[in-house]
Design a protein that fits this description.
By secondary structure, the chain is α/β, with parallel strands linked by helices. It has eleven helices and five strands.
Length: about 230
């Protein structure tokens, strides 16, 4: 079977598909490990240090020739050009507004903290909301959008990165994504639901305009990829 690197953006359905791929590649597969780091450090410092460690692990796994590598890890064009040029790059995307709300709900459900507002409306005014709203930039352009920063260069970088992917799916059409994966690996793919929210992702309609503004850069990436690259 072909070698695969599966970039798993949070709350895009990657847990289910990643588990299915790992089962098919069980003799040669690796998951990029998570490390919460030192809680005494500022959150941004811990996040950046953790993702640098994940990047190193991705390079190591590719250099070892592991056939299926998956995880919450940023796309690395240098790795794609060199150590992983023989890998198939795969990812799964989701409507950015729904993904953002799902991410917030997940954090509240699994990682509650007094420092995070207990309501979605309150959370929208925090710096962490801006970080969660630009996950496509973070994963495919290498950084989240900073306050006051022009998003256009990062949107272009993320879109260009995704143009290099071999398979891109949309969580709204999981069976189409599964069909493309199965065709690529040449064997049926067992599908089941992992890490799924206990209830559908819903939010008050009056919050949508504000969430769309927060997610504007990710929406631009998503729409560009929808037009050109989503598996169909």
């Amino acid at each position: 079977m072909p070698r695969i690197i599966y970039i798993h953006v949070p709350k895009c359905g990657g847990s289910s598909f990643g588990a299915a791929l790992r089962l098919r590649y069980f003799m040669s597969q690796a998951v990029i490990n998570l490390d919460p780091g030192d809680p005494a450090l500022p959150a941004e410092t811990r996040i950046l240090a953790d993702y640098a460690r994940r990047r190193a692990q991705l390079h190591q796994s590719a250099n070892q020739g592991i056939r299926m590598i998956s995880g919450h890890v940023q796309y690395d064009p240098e790795l794609h050009d060199r150590g992983a040029k023989n890998y198939t790059f795969v990812t799964l995307l989701r409507d950015p507004v729904v993904r953002f709300v799902s991410h917030y709900n997940y954090l509240q459900r699994r990682h509650p903290t007094p420092s995070r507002p207990a309501t979605l409306a309150g959370f929208l005014d925090t710096a962490d909301a801006a970080r969660l709203a630009s996950q496509y930039l973070f994963y495919f352009a290498g950084q989240s959008l900073l306050p006051g920063q022009d998003p256009a260069p990062l949107v272009a970088r993320a879109t260009a990165a995704l143009a290099r992917f071999d398979i891109i799916g949309d969580l709204s059409q999981p069976h189409i994504f599964a069909k493309h994966l199965q065709r690529h690996i040449g064997t049926p793919l067992p599908l089941w639901r992992r890490n799924v929210a206990p209830v559908p992702t819903e939010f008050p309609a009056n919050l949508r305009p504000k969430i769309e503004t927060l997610c504007a850069a990710d929406i631009a990436v998503y729409q560009a990829v929808q037009i050109t690259r989503i598996a169909a």
